[in-house]
Amino acid sequence: MPAEVCWTKGILSTTACIFPEHVKQVLLTGYPVAGMWRSAAQQLARQKLHGVRSGRIASNFPLLRQVTTSQSTAHQASASVQSLDRASESDRSSEFKSGLRFLKPSTSSSPSSLTPLDSAFIELVDLLPKCWQSTSTTDFNHDHSKLQTPLQVFDSRAYSSALEEDELCDEDIIGKENEHAREALPNGSNWDTGLDADSLLEQKSRKRKARELHKRQVKIETEAWQQAATEYRELMTEMCRKSLAPNLPFAQSLLLSWFEPLRDGILEEQRAYGNREHREHRSMYGPYMCQLPADMLAVITMHRLMGLLMCDQEHGCVKVIHAAVVIGEAVEQEVRIFQLMNSQKKSKDAEGNTNSLGDVANNEELEATRKADLKSKKVVRDKVKKLVKQNKLRRVDSILKHASTDEPWSTVIHVKLGSRLLELMLETSFVRAPACQDGDDFGELRPAFQHKFKNHVLRQNVNRIYGVIECDQLVLAEIDQSVKHMVMPYMPMLVKPLPWKGFNEGGYLYLKSSIMRTQGAKEQRMAVIDTPRKHMKVVVEALNVLGETGWRVNKRVLEVVEKLWKAGGGIADLVEADDVPIPERPDTSDKEVWHKWKVAVSQAKRTNSERHSLRCDTELKLGVAKKLIDEEAFYYPHNLDFRGRAYPMHPHLNHLGNDLCRGLLIFADGKPLGPSGLRWIKIQLANLYGGSVGKMSFDDRAAFAEDRMEEILDSAERPLDGSRLWLKAEDPFQFLAACIDLRDALASGNPETFVSHLPVHQDGSCNGLQHYAALGRDRIGAESVNLIAGDKPADVYSGIAERVKIIMEKDALKNPLTSRNAASARLLQGQIDRKLVKQTVMTSVYGVTFIGARMQILNRLKERSPIAVDPVDTYRAACYAAKVTLDALGEMFKEARCIMSWLGDCAKIIAAAGHTVRWTSPLGLPIVQPYRKHSRHLVKTSLQVLALRNTDDNHPVLASRQRSAFPPNFVHSLDSSHMMMTALACSKAGLTFAGVHDSYWTHAGDVENMNVILRKNFVKLYKQPILENLLLDFQTQFPDLVFPEVPARGDLDLKEVLKSPYFFN
């Protein structure tokens, strides 16, 4: 390779004959091509540094070894320069005058043959990164004829900084390392004095690990389907080579047996399209089916269908339209990734060909293509800029869509492609029935999946028929065991998510990510896209903070869960591993017996269906935990629903999940407990134990844990063989995790210095009513939901139950002949408690109606022993209890109920005018309620005719839905604003933060700091004139409509929240 190429690419052999005059001239004069020499010198310095550490060339470069093993000084650098300056002027004058000359490597030169001048220069080259670091970048923009003397200013940090800079070149994934470099310095070192060799090695090790994690994350996102296809191919090859079936689990052997026939069917379909053998629908889906290899399409179809069957709600069935859309979308996403990775590979290959000698034609062709592409993009860009200035935004959208080669596939394409792949799956997938006992019959071969139609009764005399894919019972029996063999694309990330920069820019590195889950609502999507980024700055920053919280798997809890699961479940809220038996058909003609048998069979099937879904769900959660068990940290990218609430994008194992999920997760980074952390772990234990314990004061909760310390320690040390106190808790797995953390802290000898990874929660007290009480400045309501300080936490559910009980006691004394409610009040004597009214009180903030409240209370009554012989009397009692409960709520939260009615009235006015209700959250997020009367259009596919919903924004609005949904949606937008404000404030204060709507998590040692922050931000939120701003927003949007005035409010001073210890507890 010519020397010119060597220098340009930063490659220099350690045996090259180096003439010092050239580099010295570059160094002192800032020669125009200094970048070549700089990169070459840095590369040489790095190679020599590696040699010194490995002990191979230490004797040849004593000065370099001294630099890397101790702090170098300005004296060493100046000594090298002086030795160079003392060289014979005659030896260098001719070369110096001739300017910079490229020199070819000389293989004949050796270190022993170098002159003193050359040796002195080599030492200078070893220190060259220091010189460049101490030379400002502006020096190279000065007149080249003017000599510069950068070596006069020198510090000892330059060498390590230069090497770090060289390592960081073109590595975006570790760009943030330097921001934290000062914090990462070891004791006794600082940024100004430089890093010692061990610290430098540690930094490089961290950066190397970051690069490896980034590569793994890219591989997980881009190669998951391809890797699964490769695995199937290898298994097939192994099976053919040995002429027998491999020893595989039944579930995996099923997938393997379906893979090859399905792949071959897809190959035939691709071949037919290539030969222009167009059938009815092939011309539509064919071009899209040919964009991926057949084996990848086969894997996507199998795994997506099996995944849907795991999460089914109909026990072994999935709707055709749902399956077709999901498979079509998965194929589109993989096509995007596949094309992106191939284009990157081609670019690298083209770049390599361009840099190689003799490939001039390819270079010219690539350059011509690049220029043409740039020119076309410039034309589009200029046109777009002009239209933006003219405010013609619709034209802009149209131009950008047509100019983009990555236009998204339509839903029609999704269903046509997905339906054909499903059809091929039905044609090629079979399962063999169990063999007979005599061994003569190998069992019947039957389809693994069947296409059927089901009749769904919407209401009286109104039915809807829809197609389903139903799997065979043999497949259904083993489907929950196939989780470990399934591809799960949206796994937690091994690196921090990309910061959100646009609607589709952020989150995962390559997988499709959107900042909001719009569910196809174009109005909401465009509202977010059209909002200036600066208006949504707080929302975006909060999502980034939530995504940067690191997690890891709690290995000790996972070990306990796996043992219980293998033993058959049925304990600690784990579902039973076995189905309930189906009652045998009766041997009688008695109609009453047959009726009871049918009811029992229906109940057993429903129970088994629920157990099946729960088993699959548990297997998915445990499967994710096992895959991540050895990771030091993983992260959850977050996005929003249309109301602004934040959710992790990974659906299975996350902190929004059930007790099992939360018990399996701990923070990746630990923090010392400090002076208060141990007390908060004890309070956490009491909260997780539940019942009346969680309603005690903080001191009583801590005392509860101390009184049961022996049982708590026993649960931590012998969770399965001891007294098992943790199984009595309402949240057993989280309780067990807290037991283990408390035991470890006490065993450390100094709990204050113990590093804890346990998340400690602080939950709002009926948070929706807290927001209503703050909006209405409702003092009575505020007292019941802990906005005002008390000796112990107020319980709004118990308060409502007491009010209901008093009313019913009065009604029970009345004459049943003259009072319609007297009989129901007497039936309900002794039945009114906190549990009966809790669900109704909780959902009141979400606009629960009388019908909903009646159903909730009726279900609670059915769970108890019958209160009446006649079911009609029980129904009437539930109606009466629902009415009294809602009345009691209205009395306790008078101002809140007025605000709820005002919000509903405003929504009714807007919807009656034919508009959707839209508003802006206090943090600047635009929100649009998506409720419209969507029509359907029929799409004929190869499998069946499917009815697709039109999501156009020109359909009439659902007025009743717009009105009933607005109050709860508005409050959700407020609680999400409070959570995001708290997340940002905690991040700025250096606290680790995770949020679950109205439950805020941090380390035990930081709970008190978080409590102060969340209260301050709640007061800050409600200092704003929220309702007045909302009314002004409505009046601005709809100037022709007349809205009622904001209702009067109470006299609550919000600053009292700052003093309330049980506001979040």
TrEMBL record:
GO terms for molecular function: DNA binding; DNA-directed RNA polymerase activity. GO terms for biological process: DNA-templated transcription. One of its GO terms (cellular component) is cytoplasm. InterPro entries: DNA-dir_RNA_pol_helix_hairp_sf, DNA-dir_Rpol_C_phage-type, DNA-dir_Rpol_phage-type, DNA/RNA_pol_sf, RNA_POL_N_sf, RPOL_N. Keywords: DNA-directed RNA polymerase, Nucleotidyltransferase, Transcription, Transferase, Transit peptide. It comes from the Eukaryota. Pfam families: RNA_pol (PF00940), RPOL_N (PF14700). It catalyses: RNA(n) + a ribonucleoside 5'-triphosphate = RNA(n+1) + diphosphate. It is an enzyme of class 2 (transferase). Residues 215-548 form the DNA-directed RNA polymerase N-terminal domain. PROSITE patterns: RNA_POL_PHAGE_1 (PS00900), RNA_POL_PHAGE_2 (PS00489). Its EC number is 2.7.7.6. Belongs to the phage and mitochondrial RNA polymerase family. DNA-dependent RNA polymerase catalyzes the transcription of DNA into RNA using the four ribonucleoside triphosphates as substrates. This is DNA-directed RNA polymerase. It comes from Physcomitrium patens (Spreading-leaved earth moss). The gene is rpoT2.
